[in-house]
Amino acid sequence: MRRTVSTAMKLVSLVLVTALVAGVQSAKAEFVFGTPTKLGPPMNSSYADTLDCISADGLELYLESTRPGGVGDWDLWVARRDTTDADWGEPVNLGPAINSAKSDTYACISHDGLELYFNSAGWPDGYGGFDIWVTRRATKDAGWGPPVNLGPTVNGPTEDATPWVSADGLELYFMSGTVGGGVSIWVTRRETKNDPWGTPVRLGAAINSSTYQGVPCLSANGLTLFFSDALPSGPFRSGGFGGEDMWVTTRATTDDEWGIPRNLGRPVNSSWNEEGPRPSPDGSTLYFNRGSGGYETFAIWQAPIVPIVDFNGDGKVDITDLLRLIEHWGQNEPAFDIAPPPFGDGMVDAKDLEVLMSYWQQEVNDPRLAASWRLDETEGVVAADRVGENDGTLHGGPLWQPEGGKTGGALRLDGVDDYVSTTFVLDPAAGPFSVFAWVKGGTPGQVIVSQANGANWLMSGAPDGTLATELKESGRSGKPLVSGGVITDGAWHRVGLVWDGSNRILYVDDIEVARDTQTTLVGTYAGLHVGAGSTLAPGSFWSGLIDEVRVYQRAVMP
């Protein structure tokens, strides 16, 4: 509830993740976030600055700041630019017509650019604490008129703040509550933009947990709702990264209930406080606010929104990815509905093809690629992780084959005591993941990838040498999954295991060879073995070649 805590409430002691939640309803398109960067001047100053919203045409950016030149405590400012390709101009204070002597924050501009909603505790005739107000202008070039209180139907004796109006102007999301009494996200609706706002309804338990949540942001199509934890001091939703975190929930239609929220994950969430997620109008960037402590430490950050175009997870965009997209042409298939970013439009069509082709024949770095061992080294006992810090260590004396791999070099293991050990990469129970590798040789019962003292993730099953996995749910219902795809015939095969949150799927040469349903997987916080079983048991060591082992924190669709 940033800057929405009234003076009296500031005296009250505030006593009061990423793993993706398995089985959650996901956003339409598959996308990830690139590396966040802090905006420079003039958006950020040496004072506290946070972004509130960007106009639908991308030409106005509203922020709040304690920088000099304001009217009161936190003030509302606006930066403008002539085109969406131009740099933002110097922020201009909205002046005493909008800003009061106290805090005026969380502006949200309507889709037509003619209404500006915000919250304030400084204007007279309020209803208690922070109230939500609206100011209007006749045209985008005109000045803002005097603020109007939304009245007692919306505003009450508690704190009512962080408004966000839908693109059609018929829904207004906001947070309401008190420190010590809980803060929840509510929505008020109206039939037309000329009607008054109706009685607010508290969003369901899926959104409003026992913690504090607020700062909502609704996508233009009304199907995706971003929000964040409401107070830097906590308490915070479970499954986060230690401070305020940003979350997202979706619904199939505007008449449906919101699904279970999922954490936006790293790198946009961290052990610091992150709040106020705001996608740019063109869907290319996520803006948010980050601070190391209280609100006085906050600044504006941005992260690119990157579509996942390497559908089969082989590190490049090629004919295989193109064929997968074409297979789903004209369908509402979220994994391939990558345009317009970031949510897609419910149809795989020419817009998605255009985005895919912009990456054609390029190697792509998937931010959800957790580890990648190319095994292209020529000497030494270290197998480098090309994307992280999970370098592997060779044991037993396996031999580098610089020219003998499927993609470059490979590693030859003797089936006796050769293997590679790595540090912890991921917990299979934390959410969807995938593991793929190229293999040649092997005999039934030998293991390709396992987790130390855990389960054998990929192996050749006995007695026929078909691909299998022993990674399963606990209890009697958990059992190995064995395919009919032979992998020990002396040819190169790309083998994979995908866990999508409810299904185990095995692939041989990018063809699905087995599938079943498991409610969850047994979790383990240990490193991986490449070329040996989880307990290093005799007979589990791989005899043959292994190349290009990749582990993803998402469900890959080869």
How does this structure look, described?
The protein is built from two helices and 37 strands. It is elongated, with a radius of gyration of 26 Å. The N terminus is likely disordered. The longest helix has 9 residues. Strands 22, 25, 26, 28, 33, 34, 35 and 37 form an eight-stranded antiparallel β-sheet that branches. The protein has three domains: 173 residues, 6 Propeller (Neuraminidase); 56 residues, Type 1 dockerin domain, CATH 1.10.1330.10; 184 residues, Jelly Rolls (Sandwich), CATH 2.60.120.200. It is 3% helix and 36% strand. With 558 residues, it is mainly β.
Structural class: mainly beta
Instruction: Examine the secondary-structure arrangement and name the CATH architecture of the largest domain.
Output: Sandwich
CATH first level of the largest domain: Mainly Beta
Give me the oligomer status. Answer: single chain
Count of extended strands: 37
> Treating each run of at least 4 consecutive H or I residues as one helix, how many helices?
2
What are the segments in which pLDDT stays under 50 over at least 5 consecutive residues?
A: 1-28
Question: How many distinct folded domains?
Answer: 3
> Overall pLDDT, averaged?
90
Instruction: Please bin the fraction of helical residues.
Output: under 10%
What is the CA-atom radius of gyration, in angstroms? 26 Å
Provide the β-strand percentage band.
Answer: 35-45%
Shape estimate: elongated
Q: CATH topology of the largest domain, which one?
A: Jelly Rolls
Largest sheet: 8 strands, antiparallel
Distance between the termini: 44 Å
